[in-house]
Amino acid sequence: MPIGHGNGKQSLRSPVGDTQWLGMGHSKVSMVVGIACACSLVYVVSLVLMSVHPACWTNYCLARHCTPHFTTQLFAADLNMTQRPASGAFFEDPTPNCHSVLRLRSGSSIVGPRNADVSRIVFGIAAATDMWWSRKEFLKLWWKPNSKMRGYVFLDKQPLGSYWSPELPPYRISESTAHFKYTYKGGWRSAIRISRIVSEMFRLGLRNVDWFVMGDDDTLFFVDNLVQVLSKYDHTKMFYIGSNSESHLQNILFSYNMAFGGGGFAISYPLARALAKMQDDCLSRYSYLFGSDDRMHACMAELGIPLTKEPGFHQLDVVGDVSGLLAAHPVAPLVSLHHLEVISPIFPNTATKNYTQVRALKHLLKAAEMEAGSIMQQSICYDQRRQWSFSVSWGYVVQVHKGFVTPRELEVPQKTFLSWHRESSKVEFPFNTRDNPGDVCKQPTRFFMDTVDVNPADPSFGGSLVMVGVFVREISEDKQACVDKLQPLSSVQRIRVRRKKQTDESWYQMPRRSCCRIMKWKNENIDIRVHECEEGESLVRSF
């Protein structure tokens, strides 16, 4: 009779029959029960350990103990490259990196997402030896030697002399590309060499890398902002991050889906790994393309990776005075500026200062080094009694317009510049623009940053450290004819702006334009306070 028969329970049968189960002795049953209990105990202990040290149950931690960091081939490849010795040694993150040896399934992660760190970014700077000695001054502006920053300058041939400044990243001589065809008439073969820099950096087998960032020797990076922007993205997934040109025609000729290389772009480690495997084969199909960045884009297209656009990367395909563009920077961190030899110095000369391109950028960096997130961020406020509109671009310029000009209009760049093809029509640009009035008296009166400093904790800012910038009137002989029309502003010589340091990292995720208030207007001086907009506050509340 089966067990349970006649008592309302379902019959329990072994797959091989009741007789085998019933024939088991007491000792065997005890043994089975004991094994089951032991397995349960192991499972419970495993759960406890995983809750205490979750990382040690991932592929990352397992590889840490059973896989070497470098293969013989990678080490040999590193020895074959020219670089500055000892002084170019990189800071090593204590957390090992197993990227180059793991074989992960699609969608799996080497390490969990975390905030980006500058020590886990490797910069590749595209340069040419013949132009290097004039361009290197731009790199010195943002590169911090003896810090956690890592990167290489990639040259086409050995630099002259044996001295290499310790203020610069170490250099490498790019691999030969003689076996690749280049058929673009009037172009430069160096495009092939530059397009392979990310793959060459990957093959060095560097440890502790999350991102490879490309730029030119005349690209200025705001590194703190770059780190914050990359922190928005999961470095264990494939990302291609950058931005387009400021010239509509350039985007048409190349692609709106391409990151323009001079403005810089970031490639996540997994994408660099995939690129290194296929790039040479990919490049063989695109001999007819012009530049390095469109070759990179072609390979991204073959990998199926779209461009993730970040508006803080700036190719600056414009010429002339870019102040109208920079003063209306998007509500996003400023990451890079390019074509620094083509544009006019971003600060005008004063009675005491004669600005070259490099000196002007160094002046801008005084504010950026104090706090990078706020640099170029535009705030808008009004003086209701006197009927004036103020546009404050922190660290750069305060522009004052007569009458009421709406925020919708002030946030649009004013065309002080021309397109890359030296045209001024609004259809030349892939963003909205507004005309710069021909009547000089209707143009904004500009006050450019002169000094910037940090004041001790200020009770009016909740006890936080406060940045104080002094902006002085631009010297303009043309404006002399407008003195009477622009009173009482004609008497103002300087504007002092106070703002709290940007300490809330959520701003990088969900940015909002700051509010500002005219605190004092007396004779030659105006005081402005910039602050986070309060509950129920709008930019026009003061008008």
From TrEMBL:
Keywords of this entry: Membrane, Transmembrane, Transmembrane helix
Protein name per Swiss-Prot or TrEMBL: Uncharacterized protein
Transmembrane regions: 29-52
Domain of life: Eukaryota
Gene3D superfamilies: 3.90.550.50
One Pfam family matching this protein: DUF604
